[in-house]
RING-type E3 ubiquitin transferase (Acorus calamus), 306 residues
Amino acid sequence: MLRGGYVCKEEPNSQSSIKSFEPLTKFEEVQSMETDNTPCGDHRRVPSTNSMQELLMCAVCTFSMYPPIHQCPNGHTLCSNCKQRVQNRCPTCRHDLGNIRCLALERLALSLNLQCRYREFGCQEIFPYFDRPEHEKSCHFRPYDCPYAGEECLISGDIPTLVAHLKHDHKVDMHNGCTFNHRYVKPNPQDVENATWMLTVFNCFGRQFCLHFEAFQIGNSPIYMAFLRFMGTEDEAADFRYSLEVGGNGRKLTWQGIPRSIRDSHRRVRDSQDGLLIQRNLALFFSGGDQKELRLRVTGRIWRDE
Ligand SMILES: [Zn+2]
Ligand SMILES: [Zn+2]
Ligand SMILES: [Zn+2]
Ligand SMILES: [Zn+2]
């Protein structure tokens, strides 16, 4: 994803966020000129936005610097976070840091316009240096976090990447179709500690939906919950509806809802109880038998809202 072999980098993807003062149509030229293996600090007759951006990267943590930007008496710059951590010693030349602001760099930052770092995912937006981080936090094109609910997974990416990741790394079951019929069996229904959960992915209307099923506790009450998340944005999710039905032994519960985007964490959806909730007693009625085992059949359907 990185273009060129730069040593100084802000974060993955940042090298593609190139913005120049030229009109948009010139970006490609500017880009190809800049993306050879130019070492950091190489001087060019016309400084590119890219190299100015590099100037604004903290030499210590490699993140973009925001005021106050500091420098040592020899001119080595660093961000205010790092300044607090280096105990008044310049990490580059070991000189005492003192308390010198680098106003020139702060002003340079003010003059810069940058493309959103998610340009390669489709974002065409351009922002003043100081406004960009705020946009990027909620950029429509920003990568999604892995929707798997188990141990913390740090993978993020676009939807095709995550689908492949779920399949290969988490061994998640993938199904084609907009209806489902799932059976969940749990040998020890008393145990809802450590939230047991399951995830199945459905391909439906050419999109992917995550069906979560899990056990957890609300206060002292053990609860089972099934809900659907959509692998895409909130806006896209709003076009879909789903229903879930769980029953057995002459009883039945149904739920109809709107899938939540995977932008909403699994935890957040669960805590908001936006799904089919089944209290344990009821679940045991559905299971029938001797209540030693939980056996739930969950059926459901996904459709487009007309
Ligand atoms: Zn830093
Ligand atoms: Zn220094
Ligand atoms: Zn963006
Ligand atoms: Zn993952």
Confidence is low (pLDDT under 50) at residues 1-44.
